[in-house]
């Protein structure tokens, strides 16, 4: 394990998926990466390698777009075969009845204002789905009990997940309100590197974009 002064947490949203490209609500559905998504994951791996980051353990969701992104990153950083834990606690927000629908079609069916509320409010879920608050309710305990201890023990930990599961984590790490976090865009395939203090607060945050 790395030195206890390390305490590094890397968050990466998966590369562009086929349904991102088609403007569809994805949620727990399982489309693959596009060619651009593969390129984004490879670029993320190159940036992490250039930053000299060597991981002790990886976490990802049970969805293939996050797992493939992680595999590509680990291949580029020379860490194929790294211990990896997959858990649905890190899955994307469940969009319920919206899953698989084109966002424009959803607006035509329910109205632009209603769809905007479902997408961008903190605590209003779409029919049969989760709000961002609901997503946080499964992400936060998993982070506190499973991921954070590995970081605080001095590890360098990578989490490859999804826009909303990572938003929930970033909300807690950055001390943001529900209103603040829903307006934050999270780019695909761009690593965010946190260094934590011994008390689990954030010492520094760096975004490794192009």
TrEMBL record:
<comment type="similarity">
    <text>Belongs to the phosphoglycerate mutase family. BPG-dependent PGAM subfamily.</text>
</comment>
<dbReference type="Pfam" id="PF00300">
    <property type="entry name" value="His_Phos_1"/>
</dbReference>
<feature type="binding site">
    <location>
        <begin position="13"/>
        <end position="20"/>
    </location>
    <ligand>
        <name>substrate</name>
    </ligand>
</feature>
<feature type="site" description="Transition state stabilizer">
    <location>
        <position position="162"/>
    </location>
</feature>
<dbReference type="InterPro" id="IPR001345">
    <property type="entry name" value="PG/BPGM_mutase_AS"/>
</dbReference>
<dbReference type="InterPro" id="IPR029033">
    <property type="entry name" value="His_PPase_superfam"/>
</dbReference>
<comment type="pathway">
    <text>Carbohydrate degradation; glycolysis; pyruvate from D-glyceraldehyde 3-phosphate: step 3/5.</text>
</comment>
<feature type="binding site">
    <location>
        <position position="103"/>
    </location>
    <ligand>
        <name>substrate</name>
    </ligand>
</feature>
<dbReference type="GO" id="GO:0004619">
    <property type="term" value="F:phosphoglycerate mutase activity"/>
</dbReference>
<feature type="active site" description="Proton donor/acceptor">
    <location>
        <position position="92"/>
    </location>
</feature>
<dbReference type="InterPro" id="IPR013078">
    <property type="entry name" value="His_Pase_superF_clade-1"/>
</dbReference>
<dbReference type="GO" id="GO:0006096">
    <property type="term" value="P:glycolytic process"/>
</dbReference>
<feature type="binding site">
    <location>
        <position position="65"/>
    </location>
    <ligand>
        <name>substrate</name>
    </ligand>
</feature>
<comment type="function">
    <text>Catalyzes the interconversion of 2-phosphoglycerate and 3-phosphoglycerate.</text>
</comment>
<feature type="binding site">
    <location>
        <begin position="92"/>
        <end position="95"/>
    </location>
    <ligand>
        <name>substrate</name>
    </ligand>
</feature>
<dbReference type="InterPro" id="IPR005952">
    <property type="entry name" value="Phosphogly_mut1"/>
</dbReference>
<feature type="binding site">
    <location>
        <begin position="119"/>
        <end position="120"/>
    </location>
    <ligand>
        <name>substrate</name>
    </ligand>
</feature>
<feature type="binding site">
    <location>
        <begin position="163"/>
        <end position="164"/>
    </location>
    <ligand>
        <name>substrate</name>
    </ligand>
</feature>
<keyword id="KW-0413">Isomerase</keyword>
<protein>
    <recommendedName>
        <fullName>2,3-bisphosphoglycerate-dependent phosphoglycerate mutase</fullName>
        <ecNumber>5.4.2.11</ecNumber>
    </recommendedName>
</protein>
<dbReference type="GO" id="GO:0006094">
    <property type="term" value="P:gluconeogenesis"/>
</dbReference>
<keyword id="KW-0312">Gluconeogenesis</keyword>
<keyword id="KW-0324">Glycolysis</keyword>
<feature type="binding site">
    <location>
        <begin position="26"/>
        <end position="27"/>
    </location>
    <ligand>
        <name>substrate</name>
    </ligand>
</feature>
<feature type="active site" description="Tele-phosphohistidine intermediate">
    <location>
        <position position="14"/>
    </location>
</feature>
<comment type="subunit">
    <text>Homodimer.</text>
</comment>
